[in-house]
Amino acid sequence: MNVVSANIGQPVPRIDGFAKVTGQATYAAEPHPPGLLYGVIVNSLIARGRIEAIHDEAARAVPGVIEVMTHHNRPHTALFEKSYVDGLGVPGSPYRPLHDGEIHFNGQPVAVVFAETFEAAREAAMLIQVDYERWPHNADFDAALYQKYMPSKTRSNYVPPKTRGNASEAYALSPIKIEGRFHLAPEHHNPMEMHATTVIPEEDCTLTVWDKTQGPQAVQTYLASALSLSGNEVRVRNPYVGGAFGSGLRAQHNVFLAALGAKMLKRPIRVTLTRPQMFTHVFRPEAVMDIALAADRDGTLQSIIVEGVTDTSRFEHNMENLVIWGPIGYKCPNATADYKIAPRDTYTSSDMRAPGAATGVNLFEMAIDELAWACGMDPLAFRLHNYSEIDAMHNMPLTSNALREALLQGAERFGWNGRPPAPRSLRDGREFIGHGMAIGIWDAMFSPTAARARLTSDGRLHIATPASDIGTGTYTILAQTASEAFGIPIDRIDIELGDSTLPECPTEGGSWTAASAGAAVWLACQSLREKFLKALAKSENTPERIRQSEVTLTEGELRGVRDGRREVFSLQEALSFIGEASIEAEETAKPGLRGKISEMRKARFTHSAVFCEVRVDEELGIVRVTRLVNAVAAGRIMNPKTAASQVRGAMVMATGMALHEESLMDERYGRFMNHNFSEYHIPSHADIPEMDVLFVDEKDEEVSPLGIKGVGEIGMCGTAAAIANAIFHATGKRYRTLPIMPGA
Amino acid sequence: MRNFSYSRPGTFDEACRVTEHTRFLAGGTNLIDLMKSDVERPAHVTDLKSLSMNQIEELPDGGLRLGALATNADTAAHPLVIRHLPLLASAILAGASPQIRNVATNGGNLNQRTRCHYFYDPDMVCNKRSPGTGCSARGGRNRIMAVLGTSEACIATFPSDMCVALAALNAMVNLHGPEGERSVALRDYHRLPGETPWIDNVLQQGEIVTSIDLPSVSFGEHYTYLKIRDRLSFAFSIVSVAVGLEMESGLIRRGCLALGGVGTKPWCVPEAEALMKDKPPSHSLFRDVAERILEGAVVDRDNAAKLKLAPRVIERALWQAAEGTPQSQTCKTIR
Questions:
Q1: Residue A537 sits in a domain of what CATH number?
Q2: Looking at beta carbons, which residues of chain A come within 8 Å of B236?
Q3: Minimal C-alpha gap between B234 and chain A (Å)
Q4: Cα dist. A513→A520, A582, A590 in Å?
Q5: What is the pLDDT of residue A600?
Q6: Residue A141, in any domain of the structure
Q7: Which of B143, B155, B231 would best serve as a mutation to test chain A binding (most A beta carbons within 10 A)?
Q8: Average pLDDT for A405-420
Q9: Do B333 and A743 touch (CB under 8 A)?
């Protein structure tokens, strides 16, 4: 590797790539301690009711079966419901696995079989029969809409919509208007790695928990609380995570049940969910948005009215920031929005990649496109005319906003100019060709994060922060940051992530890790560098000629100059002068440059402009996405290679949202029926064109200490709408329900 | 998966000695999945892979014989198949994924089970999986289910692409059983569900598919396999059509047509095929053919889209065949 080019901003290949492709990276289901027991979960057949009896005799008779754990025989857990609240802070009554015999959702764990082999555990699990008393349930979203409500206590990150002007009056008076109900089907996260936990009871009576999670410290706190353990009895590790997309934000039942099993049996336990079981917990909520928009004849937006509903469970009030994106992103004098949640007897819906915005931005951008067309305006020109430079809902300036540049550069790269305005004007053989576009917007978040940097006598720099690399490239960008901040080649840096015992760090999610952990590592390395150079200058053992010179540290080498003569010496030598085996510094990054900027006075967003070409065989209902261009304004880009990969991945997921992905709820049973990769269709290679991602220059010294905004989610926002809007341009037909499938 | 015993016999006679709780294993791409899902619970698995049935050879009359153990990938790539039966190669390549086709066999393709969501989920009642329990697909999420050949007891589709082409090509299936050998027309091989949907085909206990015979055809470039699905690769069909036309001086001398994705078995209607005899290709003819073949279709809660799409797909496929522009399975543009 060319060490010179490893600084921030360089396209450094993933430093963990080799470990991953050679199988040396340890995932949650891979530690194999002696005496490991395999736990297989038995799921509820019904959506609501009560367990009358569990017949486990046949299961217990299977050779190798050690125990069948149910609500009857499980060990003691925390008494109070509030002990089961996890870090995500969804209001309501958290689901408590195996707490009692009541069934709240289809697929709820009702028993766990523990056996010496996975095969025995699975066979036994299939032999368990459960008798239920069935209670009426509702899993139908349309029916749930009649019970929509606003919970008295909202999620901590919920942004209530604010009204400005008089939207209904402006709507009535405006000459050009559109209105409609837009809908998104429920989706499941489906990371490649399924949820899994390996719990290892250690000799000192502590538990080491390898869990698939985005927040090892959150899981540690949850387990300690829910299992009534003290915090230092549990250590949670997740050095490698095979994708999560938000499914690892909350501690899932696998980790609770594995730890409970270890507590019961005093043996190492592994619990891995199957792919069908991945459809028994979190999912992106189904959503409807009733959108009414109005404009003047010159295409000036006059009214925005949005009413949105997403679904939640009967026991928790999951909420999304669904309806705010139009009122924030467009400078419209009159805007109002309303949001509610609708309960069904399912597990609680949860955050999935760009929660709220993936749904809310895409559906809103589909509506905006309808209005642009009604105004007789080019969709790009309409957006350039109406987008807001500030957060129009809160009337707050932004730390930066390069959306205009993104729109212009994206259009240029795509070749938008010259697009014939009318639908059905481009044709090749039997296919209509359509060009569509949309704006993307997502929060640029920051969470206080700590990191530790340590220089050791072998001349290596060790960085530790419990941030999680969920497959995004965090290891690599943190190594780049440390390399530049300390002045050492990247191949002499070791990064340690994903361990609850490391300094404090928030759960990975919301695209804040790059900005937050990056800043923490930067500060820790700078602090270490200062401390190190100071100690070197002070130490008695440092040769006089060095002490008296201006010492510089670059590329892992120290240089001093005396009498015009250059001296070069190594980090190892320097440590020996100081007389320490290692030297360490820890810092916590706070919002703004070294914590001085108030984040309250300005709003912070990532923006994008997405352009799409589709080809549609109208008669057969076949849509092919043939080009996608995404121009992203996300502040400083740490690594254009991993960043572009994040955006492309999200664009694939958004293509799924537009055309393929739908979890099919059979409301008679309350179960999602297409619970495998054969029938839950994520896009295949054939569905994905060459994707062009460009990053627009955006200097932002306020958004976060390093000027970074994060790129994990922005690729979701706008892409699905750009596809739907391109389908309109191709065919002249508006689809208001995603996904758009053959025969729609 | 439940415990089972396993054997790998070296002779047909040995292999045929089975009980009703035996399942034959070839590529395993479907059976092993079903065993993991607790849908199939064989007491014994007889692995056929030691039997020599992987030949692909020309028959004296110019037709082809495909060994039951030849893989889908080897079959689709075989020079004889490409030269004589490009329709079959095309249909095979429209199915599954390269990884699956590398392992899945021709015999296994005939005997694969439905992908009905409710069949695959042992928590759901299903007459095909557990006789007499009922059908939860009816009235449920049945976008992928059949509209032709259904019964009160079952609306599951037969999922194969390859068999749709085999039906259009009037293949014969050669069987070896305890009672000796026999041959069955592919079109008669799969059964309608009726009141016994758990019986997928005419195989008797202990009978093994040994090979598939394909008569020689002279379609030239006048064939196509057109498959419509919910993503462009690696998905079962919503509607698929296999067509072969024998054309002579602008007239269709013989038309062979089969549908996939819409029926409980590969769907052929000889009367519809006969409509084309000695006629020139025309919109009205192809519309009549589509109408005739879809006669009696019944939709349920979610699968009306199939009936909307099917006539259009049939007509498009017939035009592709008539014009000698067969559908490519790599370029996804549909002409």
A1: 3.30.365.10
A2: 678
A3: 7
A4: 10, 28, 13
A5: 60
A6: no
A7: B231
A8: 98
A9: no
> Nearest CA of chain A to the CA of B325: how many Å?
13
Backbone φ, ψ for residue A394 (5° rounding): -100, 0
Mean pLDDT within A529-536: 95
Tell me: ipTM over 0.95. Answer: yes
Domain that holds residue A208: 37-136+191-244+248-279
The CA distance from B146 to B124, in Å, is 18
Of residues A202, A208, A238, A32, the one with CA closest to residue A117: A32
pLDDT digits (tens, 9 = 90+) for A571-608: 999 999 999 999 999 999 987 554 444 456 899 999 99
Distances from the Cα of B308 to the Cαs of A19, A285, B146, B158, in angstroms?
51, 30, 13, 20
CA dist list (Å): A43 to A98, A107, A110, A196? 11, 5, 6, 16
pLDDT attached to residue A162:
98
Q: Token pair 């599951």 is at which residue?
A: B156
B3 touches chain A (CB under 8 A): yes
Chain A: nearest CA to B58, how far in angstroms? 34
B10 close to A (CB below 8 A): no
Structural domains for chain B: 5-49 (3.30.43.10), 223-322 (3.30.390.50)
- In tens, the pLDDT along A14-51 reads 999 999 999 999 999 999 999 999 999 999 999 999 99
| B323 in contact with chain A, both atoms CB, cutoff 8 A | no
Overall domain count for chain A: 3
Residue A365 lies in a domain: yes
pLDDT per position as a tens digit, A252-262: 999 999 999 99
Question: What is the average pLDDT across A708-722?
Answer: 96
Would you state the pLDDT for residue A722?
98
Question: Which of A126, A430, A621 lies nearest to residue B38, judging by beta carbons?
Answer: A126
Residues A525 and A439 reside in one and the same domain: no
In a domain, A30, yes or no: no
Cα–Cα distance, B165 to B144 (Å, whole number): 20
Chain B CB contacts of A676 below 8 Å: 120
Residue of B nearest to A107 (CA): B123
Q: Is the pLDDT of residue A92 over 90?
A: yes
**A276: preceding bond cis by omega (within 30 degrees):** no
**What 3-state DSSP class applies to A533?**
helix
Q: What's the confidence (pLDDT) of residue A4?
A: 44
Clarify whether residues A528 and A624 are in a common domain: no
Average predicted confidence (pLDDT) for chain A: 94
Q: Which of A567, A590, A613 is the last residue of a domain?
A: A590
Q: Is B283 on the interface with A (CB under 8 A)?
A: no
User: Which of A617, A669, A742 faces B238 most closely, judged by CB atoms?
Assistant: A742
> Among A128, A431, A679, A741, which would you mutate to test the B interface (most chain B Cβ atoms within 10 Å of its Cβ)?
A679
Rg of chain A's alpha carbons, rounded to an integer? Answer: 27
Q: Which of B230, B309, B315, B320 has the most A C-beta neighbours within 10 Å, making it the best mutation to test the interface with A?
A: B230
Q: Which amino acid is at A692?
A: D
Chain A residues in contact with B117 (beta carbon < 8 A): 664, 673-675, 679
Q: Specify whether A713 is catalytic.
A: yes
**Nearest beta carbon to residue B2 from set A45, A126, A671:** A126
Closest among A285, A307, A270 to A188, alpha carbons compared? A285
Kindly report, residue by residue over A440-465, the tens digit of the pLDDT: 999 998 888 999 999 999 999 999 99
Give the nearest chain A residue to B307 (CA atoms). Answer: A743
Cβ–Cβ gap A673/B335 under 8 Å? no
A340 plus A380 within the same structural domain: yes
Q: Which two tokens stand for residue A111?
A: 């028993």
In this complex, which of A620, A665, A674 lies closest to B334 when CB atoms are compared?
Answer: A620
| Domain-located, residue A467 | yes
pLDDT tens digits along B99-110: 999 999 999 999
